């Protein structure tokens, strides 16, 4: 059963040092936290010198605390004319402060306050998992891993160049200094990675030596005689799963095929890292197919067992909101309507399950809470029959607005080729070629990203993507029809269907069907009738208002979603299926990291009805994989969306005939 995070309290000891009653220890030396950060962690790791002239540098910290080490490192990076191009700082914290708590502790930071304030503004809620915060236009990235170190450290997917070991004293918090933690650090260490910590305890030095670090003592800080510094130089030569090195591309140029939510997000993320992107789409502009409708809702998924879907949904929602906020701050707003989302149970048993999940998870109310029918009606005009989960940061947006903002942000790095259909792709001499129908080369680049939904299978021969098309139809109500009802919710309401608040013109939208893709892609009156029934189920008081509406006279939107067998998307490097099947015997007991991949070929596919949720996070995941950066999600979540997951299952089971079937008529959450 997952456990809620317990936030730290901003308590200060009599001598003015932040103090933890939980561990009966101070957060830093009485001689000064910033001075300790410079002497022990920066100095002990040879910084800023060791990052000089490098394209990328990755620091892993155990114990974020109030963030003084991060702020001192960020400041040193800012002041260094020879700094690395991109600095990644990844920190594990079990008991994060609240935003207000950080502000209290940061009040006296002086020169660091201009950095502390944007950190406070970006600070996430105390929700388990990874939270990626970007500063300096993305050149400085803080990835917070909130949770117990024994749970989070094994799930970090990265290669580290330096380590800051800054947990509470080993005598007060032994879990931060265990053999398990030392092995986890060794797993992440790139060759030559450095390490520093304020302690010189013998068991710490011996533990680090046992996992491959060369350990020495150095002069300590303040009243401490010694501290520990180390360098990763194991006597063994081979590592089955070495951490990813920083990528070295001879040319930062990528081809992206598909200009919907998936492709536009990938384009923006690569452009932000200095890549040129050639974007192809067969239509006359971006967001012309599944991403074309003018209103879609987004909210997280909650389950008491913290399923993969729930964790991916939460990570995607939080990342999307941060990404869209960054676009707006850069002058490219996406017009997000954060009106809140009320998810009601389909029956009393479903309501009970929702409430049990809230009780088990203990999430902060700023993320999700319970809302009863009386409050829903009084505060939001939602006359629901039952209470439900209230997501205060949920809402709705027009997907084309997001695509437009992302392409605008990419700017001169983008070469958009609309009305241009890629007929084939080929890999020659380390370069991917996009070819037209007559065989001519449209573009060539070392990286190619397929973001063209079900069309991807036309370009790659892969039986294990398991892509299927599912039809969805929405129903629009005119301003007059909405006005005749006498009232309409000012929030999104979802459950057995969903409805959106009134649009600026006074109209509204309800939906959505989830049917097999059969026949022409045209609106069907019987589906409009089913959507009216969904409205009557969500808002029973509106049943009489919609009974007189003629479904044959209604209009709306109809499109297709692309889904996989288990509704999770395909995000990441594509497998070399032919090579894997040729080695099916040796790969019978393989892991995903053992499978051969097609070099430079990536997928951002099958986002189904959660394109808003997964597009920004998926793009960040792919860009991080391409660059060899720390991944923005835990390794098990990256595995869950790996395009090779079905191929791996087939190899393990010795059943390589093809992918499993899918029931396209199965129920699905219709939110974005």
TrEMBL record:
Record-annotated membrane-spanning stretches: none
Signal peptide: none
EC numbers, comma separated: 2.1.1.61, 1.5.-.-
Chief location category: cytoplasm
FAD dependent oxidoreductase domain boundaries: 254-624
Recorded catalytic activity of this chain's protein: 5-aminomethyl-2-thiouridine(34) in tRNA + S-adenosyl-L-methionine = 5-methylaminomethyl-2-thiouridine(34) in tRNA + S-adenosyl-L-homocysteine + H(+)
Key words of the record: Cytoplasm, FAD, Flavoprotein, Methyltransferase, Multifunctional enzyme, Oxidoreductase, S-adenosyl-L-methionine, Transferase, tRNA processing
Compartments (UniProt record): Cytoplasm
Xref: InterPro entries: FAD-dep_OxRdtase, FAD/NAD-bd_sf, MnmC-like_methylTransf, SAM-dependent_MTases_sf, tRNA_MAMT_biosynth_bifunc_MnmC, tRNA_MNMC2, tRNA_S-uridine_synth_MnmC_C
MnmC-like methyltransferase domain span: 115-230
Region (tRNA (mnm(5)s(2)U34)-methyltransferase) residue spans: 1-233
Cofactors demanded by this protein: FAD
Pfam families cross-referenced by the UniProt entry: DAO (PF01266), Methyltransf_30 (PF05430)
UniProt region (FAD-dependent cmnm(5)s(2)U34 oxidoreductase), positions on chain: 257-672
Family per similarity comment: In the C-terminal section; belongs to the DAO family. In the N-terminal section; belongs to the methyltransferase superfamily. tRNA (mnm(5)s(2)U34)-methyltransferase family.
Function text: Catalyzes the last two steps in the biosynthesis of 5-methylaminomethyl-2-thiouridine (mnm(5)s(2)U) at the wobble position (U34) in tRNA. Catalyzes the FAD-dependent demodification of cmnm(5)s(2)U34 to nm(5)s(2)U34, followed by the transfer of a methyl group from S-adenosyl-L-methionine to nm(5)s(2)U34, to form mnm(5)s(2)U34.
PANTHER family per the UniProt record, alphabetical: SARCOSINE DEHYDROGENASE-RELATED (PTHR13847), TRNA 5-METHYLAMINOMETHYL-2-THIOURIDINE BIOSYNTHESIS BIFUNCTIONAL PROTEIN MNMC (PTHR13847:SF283)
Protein name: tRNA 5-methylaminomethyl-2-thiouridine biosynthesis bifunctional protein MnmC
Organism: Cupriavidus campinensis
Designated gene of the protein: mnmC
């Amino acid at each position: 059963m997952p456990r809620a995070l317990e936030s730290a309290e901003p308590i200060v000891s009599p001598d003015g040092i932040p103090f933890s009653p939980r561990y009966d220890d101070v957060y830093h030396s009485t001689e000064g936290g910033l001075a300790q950060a410079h002497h022990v962690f920066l100095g002990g790791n040879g910084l800023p010198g060791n990052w000089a002239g490098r394209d990328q540098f990755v620091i892993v910290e155990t114990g974020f605390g109030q963030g003084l080490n991060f702020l001192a490192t960020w400041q040193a990076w800012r002041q260094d004319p020879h700094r690395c191009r991109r600095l990644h700082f990844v920190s594990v914290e079990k008991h994060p402060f609240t935003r207000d708590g950080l502000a209290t502790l940061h009040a006296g930071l002086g020169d660091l306050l201009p950095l502390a304030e944007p950190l406070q503004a970006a600070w996430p809620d105390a929700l388990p998992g990874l939270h990626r915060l970007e500063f300096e236009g993305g050149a400085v990235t803080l990835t917070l891993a909130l949770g117990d170190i024994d749970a989070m450290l094994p799930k970090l997917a990265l290669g580290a160049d330096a380590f800051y070991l800054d947990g509470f004293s080993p005598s007060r918090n032994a879990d931060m200094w265990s053999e398990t933690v030392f092995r986890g650090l060794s797993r992440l260490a790139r060759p030559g990675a450095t390490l520093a910590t304020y302690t010189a305890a013998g068991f710490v030095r011996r533990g680090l030596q046992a996992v491959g670090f060369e350990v020495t003592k150095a002069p300590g800080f303040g009243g401490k005689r010694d501290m520990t510094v180390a360098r990763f130089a194991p006597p063994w030569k081979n590592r089955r799963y070495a951490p990813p090195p920083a990528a070295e591309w001879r040319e930062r140029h990528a081809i992206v095929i598909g200009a919907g939510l998936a492709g536009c997000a990938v384009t923006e993320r690569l452009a932000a890292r200095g890549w040129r992107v050639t974007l192809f789409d067969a239509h006359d502009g971006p967001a012309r197919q599944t991403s074309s409708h003018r209103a879609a809702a987004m909210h997280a998924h909650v389950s008491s067992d913290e399923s993969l879907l729930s964790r991916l949904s939460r990570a995607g929602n939080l990342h999307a909101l941060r990404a869209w906020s960054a676009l707006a701050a850069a002058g490219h707003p996406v017009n997000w309507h954060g009106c809140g989302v009320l998810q009601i149970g389909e029956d009393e048993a479903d309501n009970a399950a929702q409430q049990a999940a809230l009780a088990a998870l203990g999430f902060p109310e700023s993320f999700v809470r319970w809302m009863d029918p009386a409050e829903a009606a009084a505060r939001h005009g939602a006359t629901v029959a039952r209470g439900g989960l209230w997501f205060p940061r949920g809402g709705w947006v027009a997907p084309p607005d997001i695509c437009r903002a992302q392409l605008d942000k990419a700017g001169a790095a983008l070469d958009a080729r609309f009305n241009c259909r890629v007929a084939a792709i080929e890999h020659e001499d380390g370069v991917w070629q996009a070819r037209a129908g007559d065989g001519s080369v449209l573009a060539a680049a070392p990286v190619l990203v397929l973001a063209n939904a079900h069309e991807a299978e036309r370009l790659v021969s892969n039986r294990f993507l398991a892509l299927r098309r599912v039809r969805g139809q929405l129903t629009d109500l005119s301003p007059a029809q909405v006005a005749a009802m006498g009232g309409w919710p000012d929030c999104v309401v979802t459950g057995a269907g969903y409805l959106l608040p009134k649009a600026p013109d006074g109209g509204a939208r309800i939906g959505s069907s989830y049917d097999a893709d059969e026949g022409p892609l045209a609106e069907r009156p019987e589906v409009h009738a089913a959507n009216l029934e969904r409205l009557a189920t969500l808002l029973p008081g509106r049943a009489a208002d919609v009974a007189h509406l003629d479904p044959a006279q209604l209009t709306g939107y109809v499109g297709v979603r692309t889904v996989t067998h288990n509704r999770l998307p395909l995000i990441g490097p594509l497998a070399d299926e032919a090579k894997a099947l040729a080695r099916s015997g040796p790969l019978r007991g393989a892991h995903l990291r053992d499978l051969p991949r097609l070099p430079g070929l990536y997928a951002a596919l099958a986002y189904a009805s959660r394109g808003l949720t997964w597009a920004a996070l998926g793009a960040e995941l792919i860009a991080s994989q391409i660059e060899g950066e720390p991944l923005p999600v835990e390794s098990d979540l990256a595995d869950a969306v790996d395009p090779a997951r079905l191929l791996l299952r087939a190899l393990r089971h010795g059943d390589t005939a093809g992918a499993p079937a899918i029931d396209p008529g199965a129920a699905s959450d219709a939110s974005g």
